[in-house]
Design goal:
mainly alpha, MetI-like fold
């Protein structure tokens, strides 16, 4: 009613539309009057661009040298803590991804292939997914912090709650994209149960599942900074992990430990993506691509 009202139509026609036309005209004249200055007439870079490039390289060299000097001051026992923390966080990330995949694959297939179930479950999933995982983290801590290894369990659950939705929504998209002719063919061949999953559903989901798990894995690594080092109830709770070291170094102002732990986290994520996920993504593109 508002969008079709006479008043809104008059405001748009008499005021808003002429105003935007004038703004477009002014900006058009301003941009057409600007001449490119990046290169000279003979194709060589301009003096301004050369100076900016030299200054940029100088800043990078200076920053790299300062970072290297800072890392040299980090003792060997701190590097050992960083290595052990990276392994511990990697274990939690892998565990959270496995738990997420265990329930998101069947639920995602159910939502993506059964419209009746999708009408019921998809709104619920969207509402629950919109709740920030950090908002529920104090409740999880209250339940697990007094248990043996409680913070480890709470950290895995926080990673799980913050990343499982990436996998679920990708699985739903993959299940919805399964070609109907292939589904009908499996029905004609009377493939049911595990045979249907092995020949149709899992191969169709594989590219979407890899995409979701790559995104979820990156989110789980980031969540470790919040999940492994927590102030709760006036007490400090921490566990072994690269995220805990980053949070600890930030709180104490230990810049050498902060830089070393952050670089280790970055290198670990990049190495896993290039050595593991990239190979699986290549398999997904070559072997399981639906055309």
């Amino acid at each position: 009613m508002i969008s079709r009202s006479w008043l809104i139509e008059q405001i748009d026609r008499r005021f808003w539309h002429p105003f935007t036309e004038r703004v477009d005209a002014v900006l058009g004249r301003a941009f057409t009057s600007i001449q490119p200055t990046e290169e000279t007439s003979d194709g060589r870079p301009s003096a301004v661009l050369a100076i900016v490039s030299v200054l940029g390289v100088g800043v990078l060299v200076y920053g790299g040298a300062r970072a290297a000097l800072l890392l040299v001051t980090l003792p060997g026992d701190q590097w050992a803590r960083i290595g052990l923390g990276a392994i511990a966080t990697l274990t939690r990330v892998a565990l959270s991804l496995m738990i997420a995949a265990a329930w998101t694959i069947p639920v995602g297939v159910l939502i993506g292939t059964r419209p009746r179930w999708a009408a019921v479950l998809q709104p619920i999933v969207q509402i629950v997914a919109s709740i920030p995982a950090t908002a529920l983290f104090p409740v999880i801590l209250l339940a697990f912090v007094r248990l043996a290894g409680g913070l480890n369990l709470a950290a895995v659950l926080l990673m799980l709650m913050g990343t499982q939705w990436y996998i679920l929504f990708n699985v739903i998209a993959g299940a919805s994209a399964i070609p109907q002719d292939l589904a009908y063919t499996t029905e004609l061949l009377q493939l049911k149960g595990w045979a249907r999953w092995r020949t149709l559903i899992l191969p169709s989901l594989f590219p979407y599942l890899i995409t979701g798990m790559i995104t979820a894995g990156g989110g789980a690594w980031n969540a470790s900074i919040v999940a492994e080092y927590v102030h709760f109830g006036g007490e400090l709770h921490s566990t072994v992990g690269i995220g805990a070291l980053i949070a600890e170094a930030t709180a104490s102002g230990n810049y050498a430990l902060l830089l070393g732990a952050t670089l280790t986290l970055i290198l670990a994520v990049v190495a896993i993506n290039r050595s593991f996920w990239r190979r699986l993504y290549k398999i997904a593109e070559d072997k399981y691509r639906m055309e």
